[in-house]
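Work package 3, deliverable 3.1, input record:
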Amino acid sequence: MSEETGFINRKFSRRTFLKATGALGAAVALSGAHDTLLQKNVAKAAAAAPAEEKLIPTFCAMCGPSAGCGILAKVVDGKFVGIEPMPECPLNNGKNCPKAHAAPQWVYSPERLKYPMKRVGKKGEGKFQRITWDEAIKLIADKLLELKAKYGPESLGTVSPARRSYSEYIYRFLMTHGSPNYGHSGICAVQRMFVLSYTVGAVPSADWANADLILLWGKQPIYSGSSKGGVQSFLAAKERGAKIIAIKPTVESDVAKSDIWVPLRPGTDAALGLAMINVIINEKLYDAKFVEEWCYGFDQLKAHIQQYPPEWAEPITGVPAEQIKTVARMYATTPKAAIDVSNGPEHARAANDAIRCIGILMAITGHLDKKGCNVWPSASTMPSPRGVHLFDRYTQEWVDKLLGYELPPQFQPFIEGTSCSLYRLWNSVLGGEKYPVRAIIAPGSQSVASTRGTKRILQALEKLEFFVIVDVTRTSDMPWADVVIPVCTMYETDHPFEVSGNWIMARNRVIEPLGDYKSDYEFWLDLGTACGYGADWWNGDIKAHMDWRLEPLGMTYEELRTKYPRGRKYDPKPPEYEQYAKRFAAKSTRIDKGPYLPQGKVALYNTLFEAAGFTPMPVWRELPEGPTATPELLEKYPLLMSDYHTSRTYNAAWLRHVPYLREIEPYPYLQIHPDTAKARGINDGDWVKVESPHGWIKMKAQYYPGIRPDVVFALHGWWQGCKELGFEDFPLGDGGANTNNMYTTDPEKMYDPIITAMTSQTLVQVTKI
Amino acid sequence: MTDLRMTRRTFLKATGALGTVAAVGVGGRRLLQSQPLAKALAAQAEEVKIIPTYCHGCAATAVNCAVLVHVKDGKMVRIEGNPDAGNNWGVGSTSLCAKAHTAVQYEYSPNRILYPMKRTGAKGEGKFVRITWEEAMSTIVSKLKEAKEKYGPESYCHLVSEFYPPRDQVARRFLNLYGTPNYCECCLCHGPRYLAATVTIGFCSESTDDWNNSKLIVNWGSNCENSAVNQGQPHALLNAIANGVKYVDIRPMMDPLASKADQWIPIRPGTDCALALAILNVIIGEGLYDADFVRDWCYGFDRLAEHVKQYTPEWAAPITGIPADVIANLAREMATTKPMVIKTGNGVGDQQRDGTSAMAAICLIEAITGNLDVPGGNYAGDNMPSMIPLRNFMVETLLDRLPSDAYDKLLAPSYPRFLQKMPQVISPVGFHTPQSASYKVLEAVLTGKPYTPRVISAQQTSVLSQLRNPKMVSEALKKVDFFFVMDQYWSPAVDYADIVLPACSLYEHGHNSFFLGVKNRPDGTWIGMRNKVVEPMGESRSDWEFWLDLGARMGFAADMWGGDIERFMQEQLEPAGIKLEDLRNSPRGIFVKRTEPLPPREYRRYAQLFKNLPHGKVQCYNELIGGKPDADETGTLPYMPEYKGPPEGIAQTPDLAKEYPLIFSDVHAYRLDQHSSYTGLPYLRELQPYPWVKINPETAKKYGIGNGEWMKVESPHGWVKMVAEYFEGIPPDVLMSKRGWWQKCDELGLPGYSCLDGGSEVNVLYNGDREKFDKCSCQMAKQTLVRISKL
Amino acid sequence: MAKQYGFWIEIDRCVECYACEVACKAEHNVDLGIKWRRVTNVWSGSFPNVTFKTISLSCMHCEKPACEAVCPTGAIKKQPDTGAVTVDQTKCIGCHYCFFACPFGVPQYGKSGAMEKCNLCVERLAKGQEPKCVSTCPGNALHFGTMEELSKMAQEKAAKKLAASTQPSVIVSK
Amino acid sequence: MKRQYGFYVELERCIKCWSCEVACKAWKGIDAGTVSLRRVIEITSGEFPAVKRTFLSMSCMHCEKPACEAVCPTGAISKRPEDGVVVVDQTKCIGCRYCFFACPFGVPQYDKTMQKCDMCLDRLAEGKEPACVATCPTRALHFGTMEELSKIAQEKVAKRLAGSTQPSVLVSK
């Protein structure tokens, strides 16, 4: 700790408070179109006519994959104005993050799409004409059926980021239409679920409540939903005295509160993992009894790992060998130790290897399915609502028809059905794959901002025959859309229900839709019925559909809403531990439904991967461009760059247009170590040019002491402006702020060979503009 | 280890290193830290007088801690410990307990009674009018004379609390002169336990002098961190623990000292006798007793061995709530870890249905394991002759003036009549005879059996919060012909009095029971004066003055020092050749050094200790009391300790337990008050604002009762309203509270609570049937079964 | 006795998530560009031994407010019942004098030009609710109550740390 | 000569009798229901019957580098060189409570202005110990220069090691 007294030094109070205010003051161009209440005087507000105020229990919808947090939406005179805590929801216990509080500005934003449109101008011109909801549905259905007749159903592809509550409706539509081509972005969750399933048979979670040591590996609990369990269990563990080791390239608030920071270079998690296994095996710190009884291929692993000692990993990861040994020993020798791995390691060529190492580390140390280690989810007494995914209709032909594999064909379908990499889908439009897709539907996904090779995506957009966008606000690739379908925000619809652990609650409508549109779910029901597949789509009857889903719980959707206004809680079953036989015999999702682990043991040596032509054991794969991968580039591009997936105020490529959020993070920042910046004459807040071998962007330098001096970091997904604060959109390609321009598109280097995870590391030069 | 405290104090004063210091709030509420302290201190110095006396903390009961009271402009300001007296751990100790520091609030409390009054409304209504002392005294005298003529002197009964100094000197003397044997004991504290020990092993010692030689200290039912924080026992125990002595604590709750024990044994309240008998069963059964001592000094051991066969650990487990193996191991440890001392307390032998048997059994455990009067064992204390011999009026109470049939006229003997007639057996100081049991005396007002008390007086005691069955007590106080009270504070019983007399606080009179104020120690004897610190409030007088004045008015002036208190005090000092004036003028007290060195400490003084017992031996089979009539004279006393268990209990009354599933009891002493009083003093009430009941969180949650929430507690006999206080250190089927929440605290705006149903007096919950009391010493059981619900 | 309410930010639990900032702005419709509550980081140490702490600060509602003392129009008042220091916008002439006086730089000036700042959510207190920032804090780091309650909470937390850390050192292993 | 006085609480000897808390208020004439410059705190852990209770008497630690002094906007708080006592100048204090934010122990109390323990400077001037230390019935609470206090602590630990009763096992650190 610095020599100043404790954490607050005399300099802090007045000067830094002013400094922070000043930075924002200048940027505020107070444009006229401002409808917030001017006078903030309390007395004045009280004097106004007593407003008719309602509190409606429902769910926040401002962030990604997992279910929304419970909230009480405050409606005054019919206008959604804010939220209050709803403690009954176990996911967030009444707590909410900044995005939740900014929801009204998102719902009433001028950027909202209010009515269906069809393109009248040239592709990319962005000229549209308003049409009705039914006209739009019919237009899409006719086109899809026409293309199906001409080129076969597989001519349709869909693009989607991570799993959403409506993802299953997309799989169902593709199944009923006959196309296997579900394009997944390959940058979140699915990648690590696949690798862990084929290594330890499932995705065991870290038992935060009982662990004495937790490895926080590439996880950002504060960025990906600060109100959800992640932050609360982290702080509870700290207060209980548990030790936490943070393995991440930069210091966020959770790292600052951890006991050890392992400052590795982005994309090198596999090297670290391999070196840790090396230490644990060579120093005989592994659980010999567990390995002997429940692991397959230990001898092969032991021989294979000798090539990866900590001294080998140090120059690659940038982490001192001594620290690698300390972390490995601590993890192995602490009886109750868990690893909480998240999105970090999934953006690398050695992503599958990194995740395999983490699964192996859990197994050889015996930290599996034990209290305080990584455990299987405990069952619930709640009967699970019916899923929408027509899983039993997948056939081998269906898999063979797939355009381009995200996961190797032998392992398709996985939990998202048959999926191909989103990039390959666009590549097929340019003739780069087995056959081209003719139509793409993009529900809540902006490929141009969220996948690599922006230039190639723009070319494909020009060429694609039929492109449909389904979203709530204007998107970056809307100018190229043939049909734009607006849908409700989750505050304008009364379905579907949300499940959080052993608790289920119906969603309630907060306000009427602001334009001519329906919900995501109704869109798929309507389109499915319009295409003639009504039998599989309840003939468009959303109420019947919802009741069908709740049948296993013995109540209709309305009964759930009226009988349990604040949700219904079921008691959990007590957790079971060390059920290894059952755990390692888990059935897979493959066509043949065979077990994930053929030997019924942890796959230290993976025979299925070997049979599919991949390395049976985790190996090291260099970054596309990096200090040890391409030293020759260091002279021109001395710094290693990578990017975050989400942040405290934004999700992927969304929410930059929401004023209260944009105020907190107004510019696309490049986090750079103060010394590295000063060496280049760059001051805190200067605009800089960031150039890689593949493209260049403009960002604002942000002095960030908590980063390696040889690394710079940015948030991906920057394109959108914010009218209320006077910010314009950024160009999508070079010269903009979209980090996806910076990375390689060489198929040999841009993917992980097994799980098609897209790499996000490159070498750059940073110069003052 | 040298006493650091002394060296540092002299060091600081000598070097004067402290220079100017920030002023401190003198009397004012806020801290004036800005003004230079020297100036403020100098101003403070002239006005403040330092007056030595004794602390009010244990109220009138004991006279223990010598204090220095700061007085400014005739008003008490602060209090400090007197380092010269040798409080707590000896000379130099300035320590005091929390209660001591409420001296200013105790003196000037708005609850003080200021003037003599007589009742105008109905009894219990609380309507009074002020009268003169003259009218009050003459009314009392005429009533006493009338009662003596019409119904005999025994029709006057005087109620009093334990240990109150005036009661054993001037009050006892007046009662003997008046001719009534009915001096009434509350039978709640020390007496019953003292009796049980004395009739079994001939003595009852609380000495801690030899603890550092002990290998094992067993604290059995003693609550000294609450009853005697500053009287040396906690400090001695912590020293012993620090020196590695093993410490086992047998109490229902994990009180602070229990939290430092090597082993805590959470016993159910009221079942100590079962545990003691089971321990005897194991020690004798496994032959772990000291054969030599048993052969030489125990009488009837074989019969005891036979008797305890029935009391196995398996038998005791469901009663005590302690697993059988824990009982057996405890017994083995107590027998084989030598030397061992058992420190008993009020929780064991004073308020249980079989308290006498419990205490007797415990004494027998110490005896048969050879731990009596041995180094580190139950040491009977040093016989250090005092260098200040005093005339002991606690003994010279003119017992011979009582009519010959006084003992037969005793209304309700608090311990068997035949024993009261053998004062030489029960040591002269420990037990003054004759005495009746307060509860039974009040019952006689309603039943007229054996005869009806006509005049009742109460001094320094709050019977409605002291005795069981407050409903019965209030009826009795309504019915009695004449009831007069003398006290400092207005307690609930005062509402029923015909005449109320204002009593001085302990800082308003300089009257002494020198006998208790003397500190005898190896290097000599110290005596300090209880000085008058401030003028009495209103027209209050000291309890001493009242008895001397009453004595004179009743014609006993000749035997009551002519009503002259100074003469009474001077006569006490005569044998020591000390003038009362000299003592008053020596603020640091008088210390008389020992002329010749003390002889080395003697042990195993068995012949002398057991001389009053049959066969001069420990009574395993008690022929002193066995087969003799009990206190009620309706049955006979057992020869050997017998188990009875609480009147209502999970093991004792299983069907009642279906409706009332939880055990309820209360702590006798608490470190934030003096038994039932002092909840009116702001500094103490602030730390316990509401009537608390300690409850295990799991139990409370089952009834939906949150921490700090009001709840209803109902027994087969009555119900109260209490606040739940979550506490892990208590068994899930036990609730423990505290009696005495009747005093309001105006400064904090907190009320006093009623002593009847619906109030917060635990005594309404207990069984009031005398058949369920201890038959030897009239102990009233304080254990029952309750059901609880959210309020 | 006048109650003195206050905040307490428990540094060890704040995770710099900005929920309190946005919740406050949404609750009071605060203009863009100014903030009634502000989250700020303080870094210390240098790579790789670098860390930071986060402070969430709003008006301190001082006992003797410097702003109240200098305000030329008497627009600033300390409320007796809650201890909150509030601004009467109709009287404020926007002279910024309070901004100079405040040791913490708290006063903000929105589009109306009049001074505005945290008002301790007195309107929520009146309805028995906690201030908005406190009610939403995901880390349970921001606390609100009378100063006595807050002090007891802080002392108990410090004591817990001391007791847990020292584990009274019994040298002799039994 | 710079001297630092301080307190030392032996956790094993504290029995939460509240004497120090009441003595402090009585000596300084502080009304009940207002501030407490010394507070006895209990930490309970475990469930019946395996319960652990630890008691701790807590007041100002008179730090070497007081965090309260560092943040006080008006310089009302200062540390006296001659005895190391941290004192508050009531006339300068504006009751902004920022020192409460800074203090890691939650010591500052407020009765209009900041109140806290001043180590009973008036008693020190008379060669007496602070009121709380003087009254502690179990001698758990000690006062003195840091050298004196460490001597007490080390003596205690050494005694336990030597152990007058059981032969103790040397602990290897």
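The first strand of chain C starts at residue 5 and ends at 9.
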